[in-house]
User: Which sequence fits this backbone?
Protein backbone atom coordinates (compact mmCIF):
# COMPACT_ATOMS: atom_id res chain seq x y z
CA UNK A 1 0.00 0.00 0.00
CA UNK A 2 1.34 3.41 -0.96
CA UNK A 3 0.09 6.81 0.12
CA UNK A 4 0.30 10.52 -0.55
CA UNK A 5 -1.13 13.32 1.53
CA UNK A 6 -2.63 16.72 0.79
CA UNK A 7 -2.81 19.66 3.16
CA UNK A 8 -5.85 21.82 2.67
CA UNK A 9 -4.33 24.94 4.23
CA UNK A 10 -1.17 25.03 2.13
CA UNK A 11 -0.76 25.69 -1.57
CA UNK A 12 0.12 22.68 -3.70
CA UNK A 13 3.57 24.03 -4.49
CA UNK A 14 4.51 24.77 -0.89
CA UNK A 15 5.94 22.22 1.53
CA UNK A 16 3.88 21.40 4.58
CA UNK A 17 5.37 22.68 7.80
CA UNK A 18 5.42 20.93 11.17
CA UNK A 19 2.16 22.60 12.27
CA UNK A 20 0.23 21.47 9.21
CA UNK A 21 -2.50 18.89 9.65
CA UNK A 22 -2.82 16.36 6.87
CA UNK A 23 -6.47 16.52 5.84
CA UNK A 24 -6.59 14.28 2.79
CA UNK A 25 -4.75 11.00 2.31
CA UNK A 26 -4.63 9.19 -1.03
CA UNK A 27 -3.78 5.50 -0.89
CA UNK A 28 -3.29 2.80 -3.50
CA UNK A 29 -3.65 -0.91 -2.82
CA UNK A 30 -2.45 -4.04 -4.64
CA UNK A 31 -4.98 -5.22 -7.19
CA UNK A 32 -6.16 -8.76 -6.54
CA UNK A 33 -9.21 -10.67 -7.82
CA UNK A 34 -11.06 -12.62 -5.13
CA UNK A 35 -13.68 -15.35 -5.43
CA UNK A 36 -16.08 -15.12 -2.50
CA UNK A 37 -19.21 -16.91 -1.33
CA UNK A 38 -22.50 -15.38 -0.21
CA UNK A 39 -22.80 -16.12 3.51
CA UNK A 40 -25.98 -14.16 4.30
CA UNK A 41 -28.62 -11.99 2.64
CA UNK A 42 -30.61 -9.48 4.70
CA UNK A 43 -33.32 -7.04 3.64
CA UNK A 44 -32.42 -3.90 5.58
CA UNK A 45 -34.92 -1.52 3.96
CA UNK A 46 -37.79 -1.66 1.52
CA UNK A 47 -35.44 -1.30 -1.45
CA UNK A 48 -32.04 -2.26 -0.08
CA UNK A 49 -30.45 -5.61 0.70
CA UNK A 50 -27.22 -6.37 2.52
CA UNK A 51 -25.16 -9.22 1.10
CA UNK A 52 -22.44 -10.70 3.27
CA UNK A 53 -19.55 -12.29 1.39
CA UNK A 54 -16.95 -14.56 2.89
CA UNK A 55 -13.81 -16.44 1.91
CA UNK A 56 -10.16 -16.91 2.74
CA UNK A 57 -9.32 -14.55 -0.11
CA UNK A 58 -10.27 -11.75 2.30
CA UNK A 59 -7.25 -12.45 4.52
CA UNK A 60 -5.29 -9.60 2.90
CA UNK A 61 -8.23 -7.40 1.92
CA UNK A 62 -7.69 -3.69 2.64
CA UNK A 63 -10.27 -0.95 3.12
CA UNK A 64 -9.58 2.31 4.95
CA UNK A 65 -11.93 4.99 3.57
CA UNK A 66 -15.73 5.29 3.62
CA UNK A 67 -15.97 5.55 -0.16
CA UNK A 68 -13.79 2.50 -0.83
CA UNK A 69 -15.46 0.40 -3.48
CA UNK A 70 -15.01 -2.91 -5.19
CA UNK A 71 -16.05 -4.31 -8.53
CA UNK A 72 -18.51 -7.17 -8.27
CA UNK A 73 -18.40 -9.84 -10.97
CA UNK A 74 -21.65 -11.77 -10.97
CA UNK A 75 -22.43 -15.21 -12.41
CA UNK A 76 -24.32 -15.19 -15.70
CA UNK A 77 -26.48 -18.10 -14.54
CA UNK A 78 -27.98 -18.85 -11.11
CA UNK A 79 -25.54 -20.92 -9.09
CA UNK A 80 -22.77 -20.43 -11.64
CA UNK A 81 -19.18 -19.29 -11.23
CA UNK A 82 -18.46 -15.72 -12.32
CA UNK A 83 -15.77 -15.07 -14.89
CA UNK A 84 -12.96 -13.11 -13.31
CA UNK A 85 -10.43 -10.69 -14.84
CA UNK A 86 -6.75 -11.52 -15.06
CA UNK A 87 -4.32 -9.37 -13.10
CA UNK A 88 -0.67 -9.23 -14.18
CA UNK A 89 1.93 -7.00 -12.55
CA UNK A 90 -0.78 -5.34 -10.49
CA UNK A 91 -2.81 -4.40 -13.57
CA UNK A 92 -6.08 -5.67 -14.99
CA UNK A 93 -5.24 -7.16 -18.40
CA UNK A 94 -7.83 -8.47 -20.82
CA UNK A 95 -11.32 -9.33 -19.77
CA UNK A 96 -12.64 -5.82 -20.33
CA UNK A 97 -15.72 -7.45 -21.84
CA UNK A 98 -16.65 -8.78 -18.43
CA UNK A 99 -19.74 -7.28 -16.86
CA UNK A 100 -19.21 -5.80 -13.43
CA UNK A 101 -20.62 -3.13 -11.17
CA UNK A 102 -18.98 -1.01 -8.45
CA UNK A 103 -20.25 -1.08 -4.88
CA UNK A 104 -19.17 0.55 -1.65
CA UNK A 105 -17.70 -1.56 1.13
CA UNK A 106 -20.17 -1.24 4.01
CA UNK A 107 -18.51 -3.46 6.64
CA UNK A 108 -15.36 -5.56 6.69
CA UNK A 109 -14.32 -7.98 9.43
CA UNK A 110 -10.86 -9.37 8.81
CA UNK A 111 -10.98 -11.85 11.67
CA UNK A 112 -14.31 -13.28 10.54
CA UNK A 113 -13.34 -12.98 6.85
CA UNK A 114 -16.59 -11.22 5.96
CA UNK A 115 -17.35 -8.33 3.62
CA UNK A 116 -20.77 -6.63 3.61
CA UNK A 117 -22.16 -4.86 0.55
CA UNK A 118 -25.45 -2.92 0.53
CA UNK A 119 -27.29 -2.96 -2.82
CA UNK A 120 -30.33 -1.03 -4.00
CA UNK A 121 -33.03 -3.34 -5.36
CA UNK A 122 -34.41 -2.73 -8.84
CA UNK A 123 -35.41 -4.91 -11.76
CA UNK A 124 -33.84 -3.05 -14.67
CA UNK A 125 -30.17 -3.74 -13.94
CA UNK A 126 -28.10 -6.88 -13.62
CA UNK A 127 -26.82 -6.09 -10.14
CA UNK A 128 -30.19 -4.93 -8.83
CA UNK A 129 -31.86 -8.08 -10.12
CA UNK A 130 -29.09 -10.26 -8.72
CA UNK A 131 -29.40 -8.62 -5.30
CA UNK A 132 -33.07 -9.55 -5.16
CA UNK A 133 -32.30 -13.19 -5.96
CA UNK A 134 -28.98 -13.74 -4.20
CA UNK A 135 -28.81 -16.89 -2.10
CA UNK A 136 -26.41 -18.28 0.46
CA UNK A 137 -23.75 -20.27 -1.36
CA UNK A 138 -23.71 -18.14 -4.51
CA UNK A 139 -20.26 -17.23 -5.83
CA UNK A 140 -19.24 -13.63 -6.48
CA UNK A 141 -16.03 -12.20 -7.88
CA UNK A 142 -14.53 -9.13 -6.24
CA UNK A 143 -11.77 -6.81 -7.49
CA UNK A 144 -10.42 -3.89 -5.48
CA UNK A 145 -10.42 -1.51 -3.77
CA UNK A 146 -7.65 -0.15 -5.93
CA UNK A 147 -7.46 3.17 -4.15
CA UNK A 148 -8.71 5.05 -1.13
CA UNK A 149 -9.52 8.75 -0.86
CA UNK A 150 -9.46 9.34 2.87
CA UNK A 151 -10.77 12.66 4.17
CA UNK A 152 -9.22 12.83 7.61
CA UNK A 153 -11.53 13.91 10.41
CA UNK A 154 -10.01 17.32 11.10
CA UNK A 155 -12.75 19.63 9.84
CA UNK A 156 -14.85 21.95 11.99
CA UNK A 157 -18.12 20.76 10.43
CA UNK A 158 -19.52 18.60 7.65
CA UNK A 159 -22.48 18.67 5.28
CA UNK A 160 -23.45 15.44 3.50
CA UNK A 161 -26.11 15.30 0.77
CA UNK A 162 -26.61 11.86 -0.77
CA UNK A 163 -29.16 9.62 -2.41
CA UNK A 164 -29.63 5.95 -1.59
CA UNK A 165 -26.75 4.83 -3.81
CA UNK A 166 -24.30 6.76 -1.63
CA UNK A 167 -26.07 5.99 1.64
CA UNK A 168 -23.77 3.03 2.50
CA UNK A 169 -20.71 5.26 2.14
CA UNK A 170 -22.37 8.03 4.13
CA UNK A 171 -23.31 5.65 6.93
CA UNK A 172 -19.77 4.30 7.10
CA UNK A 173 -18.33 7.81 7.10
CA UNK A 174 -20.63 8.96 9.91
CA UNK A 175 -19.57 6.02 12.04
CA UNK A 176 -15.95 7.17 11.81
CA UNK A 177 -16.39 10.82 12.77
CA UNK A 178 -15.21 12.11 16.12
CA UNK A 179 -17.60 12.88 18.95
CA UNK A 180 -19.71 16.03 18.80
CA UNK A 181 -18.45 17.41 15.48
CA UNK A 182 -21.53 18.99 13.82
CA UNK A 183 -22.79 17.18 10.72
CA UNK A 184 -25.78 18.15 8.61
CA UNK A 185 -27.06 15.21 6.57
CA UNK A 186 -29.59 15.15 3.72
CA UNK A 187 -30.62 11.78 2.29
CA UNK A 188 -32.89 11.41 -0.75
CA UNK A 189 -34.84 8.13 -0.92
CA UNK A 190 -38.13 6.95 -2.36
CA UNK A 191 -40.21 6.99 0.81
CA UNK A 192 -40.21 6.15 4.52
CA UNK A 193 -39.62 2.48 3.75
CA UNK A 194 -36.05 3.33 2.75
CA UNK A 195 -35.10 5.14 5.96
CA UNK A 196 -32.21 3.52 7.82
CA UNK A 197 -30.74 4.25 11.26
CA UNK A 198 -27.54 6.30 11.12
CA UNK A 199 -25.12 5.77 13.98
CA UNK A 200 -22.43 8.30 14.85
CA UNK A 201 -20.64 9.88 17.78
CA UNK A 202 -20.91 13.15 15.86
CA UNK A 203 -23.69 15.66 16.44
CA UNK A 204 -26.09 14.76 13.63
CA UNK A 205 -28.87 16.80 12.08
CA UNK A 206 -30.48 14.37 9.60
CA UNK A 207 -33.20 15.23 7.09
CA UNK A 208 -34.75 12.51 4.91
CA UNK A 209 -36.01 13.79 1.56
CA UNK A 210 -38.77 11.68 -0.02
CA UNK A 211 -39.24 11.84 -3.79
CA UNK A 212 -42.38 9.65 -3.51
CA UNK A 213 -43.64 8.74 -6.99
CA UNK A 214 -40.90 10.61 -8.85
CA UNK A 215 -38.17 8.56 -10.52
CA UNK A 216 -34.64 8.50 -9.09
CA UNK A 217 -32.43 11.17 -10.59
CA UNK A 218 -35.29 13.44 -11.65
CA UNK A 219 -35.60 15.73 -8.64
CA UNK A 220 -33.67 18.72 -7.32
CA UNK A 221 -34.12 17.65 -3.71
CA UNK A 222 -30.42 17.36 -2.89
CA UNK A 223 -29.41 20.47 -4.83
CA UNK A 224 -32.13 22.54 -3.18
CA UNK A 225 -31.18 21.23 0.25
CA UNK A 226 -27.53 22.19 -0.18
CA UNK A 227 -28.39 25.62 -1.58
CA UNK A 228 -30.78 26.22 1.29
CA UNK A 229 -28.19 25.44 3.96
CA UNK A 230 -26.35 28.25 5.72
CA UNK A 231 -22.85 26.83 6.07
CA UNK A 232 -21.16 27.47 9.42
CA UNK A 233 -18.01 29.51 9.83
CA UNK A 234 -14.73 27.69 10.00
CA UNK A 235 -13.01 25.03 7.93
CA UNK A 236 -15.69 22.61 6.79
CA UNK A 237 -16.26 19.90 4.21
CA UNK A 238 -19.27 19.40 1.92
CA UNK A 239 -19.84 16.03 0.27
CA UNK A 240 -22.57 15.52 -2.32
CA UNK A 241 -23.12 12.16 -4.03
CA UNK A 242 -25.93 10.91 -6.24
CA UNK A 243 -27.16 11.12 -9.82
CA UNK A 244 -24.44 12.91 -11.77
CA UNK A 245 -26.44 15.42 -13.79
CA UNK A 246 -28.79 16.45 -11.01
CA UNK A 247 -25.96 17.39 -8.64
CA UNK A 248 -23.43 18.70 -11.19
CA UNK A 249 -24.47 22.39 -10.78
CA UNK A 250 -23.43 22.21 -7.14
CA UNK A 251 -19.76 22.17 -8.14
CA UNK A 252 -20.04 25.68 -9.52
CA UNK A 253 -22.27 26.79 -6.67
CA UNK A 254 -19.96 25.61 -3.89
CA UNK A 255 -16.86 27.05 -5.53
CA UNK A 256 -18.06 30.31 -7.06
CA UNK A 257 -21.04 31.32 -4.95
CA UNK A 258 -20.13 29.86 -1.56
CA UNK A 259 -16.38 30.30 -2.06
CA UNK A 260 -15.23 26.94 -0.76
CA UNK A 261 -11.68 25.88 -1.54
CA UNK A 262 -11.08 22.99 -3.88
CA UNK A 263 -10.28 20.64 -1.02
CA UNK A 264 -13.32 21.58 1.02
CA UNK A 265 -15.94 19.88 -1.10
CA UNK A 266 -16.55 16.87 -3.29
CA UNK A 267 -19.47 16.53 -5.70
CA UNK A 268 -19.42 12.92 -6.86
CA UNK A 269 -21.70 11.47 -9.54
CA UNK A 270 -22.33 7.95 -8.26
CA UNK A 271 -24.52 7.13 -11.26
CA UNK A 272 -25.99 8.76 -14.34
CA UNK A 273 -29.57 8.31 -15.43
CA UNK A 274 -29.80 6.01 -18.46
CA UNK A 275 -26.10 5.05 -18.38
CA UNK A 276 -24.95 1.60 -17.29
CA UNK A 277 -21.80 1.44 -15.16
CA UNK A 278 -21.31 5.23 -15.18
CA UNK A 279 -17.68 6.36 -15.01
CA UNK A 280 -17.39 9.20 -12.51
CA UNK A 281 -13.97 10.08 -13.91
CA UNK A 282 -15.94 11.56 -16.81
CA UNK A 283 -17.50 13.94 -14.32
CA UNK A 284 -14.07 14.90 -13.01
CA UNK A 285 -12.94 15.65 -16.57
CA UNK A 286 -16.00 17.79 -17.17
CA UNK A 287 -15.33 19.64 -13.93
CA UNK A 288 -11.76 20.37 -15.00
CA UNK A 289 -13.03 21.81 -18.29
CA UNK A 290 -15.83 23.79 -16.63
CA UNK A 291 -15.44 27.58 -16.29
CA UNK A 292 -15.68 27.03 -12.56
CA UNK A 293 -12.16 25.73 -12.97
CA UNK A 294 -10.26 22.50 -12.27
CA UNK A 295 -10.35 23.26 -8.58
CA UNK A 296 -14.05 22.39 -8.56
CA UNK A 297 -13.43 18.68 -8.24
CA UNK A 298 -11.46 16.63 -5.79
CA UNK A 299 -9.41 13.63 -6.88
CA UNK A 300 -11.25 10.40 -6.31
CA UNK A 301 -10.06 7.34 -4.49
CA UNK A 302 -10.66 4.94 -7.35
CA UNK A 303 -8.53 4.30 -10.40
CA UNK A 304 -9.25 2.90 -13.81
CA UNK A 305 -7.56 -0.32 -12.81
CA UNK A 306 -9.79 -0.76 -9.81
CA UNK A 307 -12.90 -0.01 -11.77
CA UNK A 308 -13.66 3.25 -13.38
CA UNK A 309 -17.15 3.94 -12.11
CA UNK A 310 -18.32 5.27 -8.81
CA UNK A 311 -19.43 2.90 -6.08
CA UNK A 312 -23.12 3.00 -6.77
CA UNK A 313 -26.04 0.74 -7.44
CA UNK A 314 -27.46 3.07 -10.04
CA UNK A 315 -31.24 3.09 -9.65
CA UNK A 316 -31.81 3.70 -13.34
CA UNK A 317 -28.40 3.26 -14.88
CA UNK A 318 -27.23 -0.09 -13.56
Assistant:
Amino acid sequence: MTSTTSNLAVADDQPAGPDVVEQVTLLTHPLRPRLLTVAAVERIAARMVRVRLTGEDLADFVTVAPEDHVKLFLPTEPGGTPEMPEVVDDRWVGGRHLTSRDYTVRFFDREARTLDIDLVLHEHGIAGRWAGRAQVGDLVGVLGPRGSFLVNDVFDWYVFAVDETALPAAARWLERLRADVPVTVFVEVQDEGDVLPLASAASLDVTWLFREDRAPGTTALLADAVRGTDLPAGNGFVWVAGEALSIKPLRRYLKNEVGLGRDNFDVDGYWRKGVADHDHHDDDTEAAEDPAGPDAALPTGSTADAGSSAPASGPSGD
Q: What stands out?
A: DSSP finds six helices and 16 strands in the chain.
